[in-house]
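Quick check before the chapter quiz. The format below is the same one you will see on the exam, so make sure you can read both the input and the output lines.
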Amino acid sequence: MTTRPVIDPVSLEVIRNALTAIAEEMSMVVMRAARSPLLREAGDHSSALTDAQGFLVAQGADVPVHLGVLSFTVREFLARVPAERLAPGDVWILNLPEIGGNHLPDVKLIRPVFRDGALYAFSISLAHWADVGGAMPGSYFAEARDAWAEGLRMPPTRLVAGEALDEEKLALILANVRGPDERKGDILAQIAATTVAARRLDELAAKHGTAWMTAAFEAIHDRAERQMAEAIRAIPNGVYRGEDFMDDDGHSGPPVPIRVTVTIEDETATFDFSDSADAVPGPINTTKFIAGAAVFYAMKALYGPDIQPSGGCYRPLKVVTRPGSIADAPYDRPVVGGNHETCQRLADAIFHALIPVAAPLLSAGGPTTAGLLIFGTRTEAGWQTFYEVHPGGEGARIDRDGMASTRVHLANVMNTPAEVIEAEYPITVEFQRLRAGSGGEGAHRGGEGILRGYRMRGDDTTVTTMFERAVVPPYGLDGGAPGAPFGAVLTRADGRSERLRGKQNIRIARGDLVVVESSGGGGYGRSAVAETAAE
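Here is the expected output.
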């Protein structure tokens, strides 16, 4: 019988930081090597390391919704590709939402890491590709009613074997996406990131041995489990319910409820989303893995910011979803917007539920939408796809105003600089400024959103919108007023204007102007003016 090495606290801290540094180096490799501005400028990618069973041991300072999903990806991958099929030098590619995923544009590359013939870790690079095929440039189709309208579906596929890229499989992928040269550059950047991680892990294993590394992984899990259990114990036992709403079903109709029941019992927390709406026709459905990511984010943000993200964090947490619901949709439903829209509403529902016990820790409602616009332009060289998210006003807190022009909750993607947009695409950024007065009133005021104007220089352009908080605005807390809703306005070159819907695909022309009006944050507490009026 082999005795597991004992990892002392100092050594554990050293290895924990070393693993995090490896994950962060992976993300730097992607940003420096990728071809698309979406990755190298906006940083819409994430990196993680897992143990041999697929449980998370470290992650980069990346996008929370990605990282929450990556807690499940390798385990779901191993359920379909047994470890016996893996070999040194492999890199596998996949994007199916039902395999520990979120939506098709977020493509995962997984490298098993071996030493002395034994598998002991995985490195994973997730990157949002600017296009994965489908009905519209950018792979967001507002009218989608099934998963196949959203793009190329890739099951686990060995793309690299023995460090050799399989050119036939790569050609098959590139034949089914727009901008194949850009996609190829991004794939190679992801492969490079997983390679660097494997090299760094090998350096650690050469110094300490794989048995010690495996023991360190278990120690990380055990400590994170204890820390999360302690965090839960600080919450009064009880049952707490919260809800929030999507603007519509992705096509039309009234707001769609997202509901959660949170049950705290000593050192265990259960989050049950079963009462949420059924899966909807439009592309705002999501997966049970996104629900898990929202739970992990909410608990870590409120009660455990210093806990190392790892598989151990999930042991005291139980996530329940109802198959067939918007939070656990059938595999054939469209989900592209659920990744960054519905995930935020799942988190907001949790925060609403915890108001009775956590109000001083909470912010009022913020820009919990990607505020996404995608411009697709046909050029002589093929399609160019510009994918841009937009910040809004942070919700106010009990002790301060909300910040202007920021991203909150499970989002962490940067904007693309105007200079890069104008150099790479036939688009001029005519202006960008704060949206004055968009923050909600209160004892502390919500932050302000932004106004950003895009003027078209090309003749054949599509624009796709995918945003929320246009109908149900960011909420105020403790008597604070809601922030201004999100919006976008198209003004044609001839002066005609129309307000764009939250989920829409349209064609626009040279000289047309699209203006984004991002949401303001909600206020916190009643303002002095409101208090005086009440008296």
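If your answer matched, good. The chain has twelve helices and 20 strands.
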